[in-house]
Write a structure and sequence with these properties.
2 copies of one chain form a homodimer.
Chain A: E1 3-6, E2 13-16, E3 53-55, E4 65-69, E5 85-86, E6 89-95, H1 109-127, E7 134-141, E8 153-159, H2 164-180, H3 184-192, E9 198-201, E10 205-208, E11 219-223, H4 235-255, E12 261-266, E13 281-286, H5 293-298, E14 300-303, H6 307-321
Antiparallel strand pairs in A: 1-2, 1-5, 3-4, 4-6, 6-8, 7-8, 7-12, 9-10, 10-11, 11-13, 12-13
Helix pairs in contact in A: 1-4, 4-6
Chain lengths: 322, 322
């Protein structure tokens, strides 16, 4: 049973999930489980737990996007703590296409769009469960991005607690609101839209490399109009977002050779109180640098590519691939 | 010039050090610099900056351990901030042996001992520089551990600011002292010495897997006797510690095949104020899991091997290799 444990001196949280040691890993030499059939490919649906949701934009295809419970969950609704707290939650996998490809850029526009619809729908559904307080959607692409299976997929981990980082940010956003009378993120977008860290924009979304980028080519994607929770996003905006994300990742893949990457949605908690303020965003980053002794020992990142230079390169790359 | 940048909402610190993009990387396919001679091997001393210190236990050998300024520093004493703060500091490399080997377990007992003497001496020297507030010694071994050169080496980054994580821990240790009248770490050792997370002990040091281990087989090494700063450690205790560290890493190398690993010294700041309390430790961990979307998005780790099981495996492994 997975457990939540907190270090009393650092405040750091860890999920101890021993069942995950058994999961197959196509990339790791250390894996004890050989994967010769892809459990995410059509025809192998029996290798995953029963789907929580399926999506298809074409009535002749069973599914284009398929959401299934994670077979090796980091959290469980019926978890019970042994030495730590019970790690209560839901862990799902969003399979982004029937095609066995490694990146969101290789799925069709419809599949990308349905993937983002699935993110929203699952967050909406899980947000109604009173046992759950937060839902994190994230994607690990390629081995250095932390993927253990190649077939393009995302994950959703919903937990009964709000991550400490999100709580901290909520408090800081609240302070900004009190001091300036504005949303901290709306102000951030205003400051970045014309600056040298600006990367791209669409009707509804702004993209820039943040001032304190942890990673080379890290990008943040925010809705220009104030919006607290990702799960309130309309179908048409999700289509715009899916197209934008494919474009940004194509830009990364133009600069770097088949880069490992991650993205995750920094969303509001499921039930914001009346005085809370938030503004969701996606953080997208290729994984070129390794988090090593300095990062772990000091809790500080070293980024060898300044965000101003990264943004300039990304603007050119995106112009080339569009 | 390297800069320190802080994200206003997360409080997260980043060093933007663009000069580091130019450094050679023997492991990364993306490296633009081909390394055909090892700059850390004897005879190639001219490929590194002039040594800050050299050590030899044998008068017929020029050096067994060699400390040099990092050619691609993440911090510099003469840094000036452009958009962020200046990232002021000193970045050194400790070459642990003339032999071109990849792990601390492959150097001689004398070389290991002199490596730990070098850590202490350099921290002692740098602690006298009023511009510097903290010194972090860390080791990245093998590619997944973040090493860019194979030849076994450690690093020391001294900074003009105390890392936020260390400040937080200092405050928590102070609270514990106020509430319980004891050092938080002395109490921690007492609680772990007889428990099922206990791994090993010597006359002066205790080793256990911490309750909220972030990584499989993570170990903490602490002096049993209360001791605030690593740089006050005597030669004889450093010899005991070096032998212990080689033993622990041999244990890891018995369980795992040539594992990438990191260790770092969580030390007190250079100048503790009268009411501060600390107790240094080494954190040692192999790098089997990847920090990916969930860890980055939630600030929470997922550990598939519980520390109680890890400690049992480590006890057996260390008994085998001793």
């Amino acid at each position: 049973m997975p457990e939540l444990r907190q270090d009393p001196l650092s405040g750091r949280w860890v999920i101890v999930a021993e069942n995950r040691a058994a999961r197959p890993d196509q990339f790791a030499a250390r894996s004890e489980t050989v994967v010769d059939v892809c459990p995410f490919c059509p025809g192998h649906e029996d290798l995953t737990p029963k789907a929580s949701a399926v999506y298809s934009g074409d009535s002749s295809i069973d599914w284009q996007v398929r959401v299934v419970p994670n077979k090796y969950p980091a959290v469980e609704l019926n978890a019970s703590g042994d030495r730590g707290e019970a790690a209560i939650g839901v862990h799902e996998v969003i399979i982004e296409s029937p095609a066995h490809v490694a990146s969101l850029t290789e799925v069709s526009a419809t599949e990308a769009q349905l993937t983002f619809v699935a993110y929203r729908d699952r967050l909406q559904t899980l947000s109604k469960d009173k046992r759950l307080a937060y839902g994190l959607v994230f994607k690990n692409a390629r081995a250095d991005g932390g993927a253990s299976l190649e077939h393009t997929h995302s994950q959703l981990i919903a937990t009964s607690t709000i991550p400490a980082d999100v709580q901290y940010e909520l408090a800081k956003a609240g302070e900004h609101q009190m001091l300036h009378g504005n949303c901290a993120f709306c102000d951030l977008i205003d400051g970045e839209l014309d600056g040298d860290r600006h990367v791209f924009e669409t009707d509804s979304f702004a993209v820039f490399c943040p001032f304190s980028s942890r990673f080379p080519y890290e990008m943040w994607v925010l809705p220009k109009e104030h919006c607290e929770s990702f799960e309130t996003t309309t179908d048409s905006k999700l289509a715009e977002l899916a197209e934008l994300m494919q474009k940004l990742i194509r830009g990364l893949e133009d600069i770097l050779d088949a880069p490992a990457y991650n993205y995750w949605i920094r969303n509001a908690p499921f039930r914001l109180s009346a005085h809370d303020d938030f503004h969701w965003r996606i953080e997208l980053t290729p994984r070129m640098t390794r988090l090593a002794g300095f990062e772990l020992g000091a809790g500080c990142f070293i980024n060898p590519v300044g965000p101003e230079h990264a943004a300039a390169e990304l603007r050119s790359a995106i112009a080339r691939v569009v």
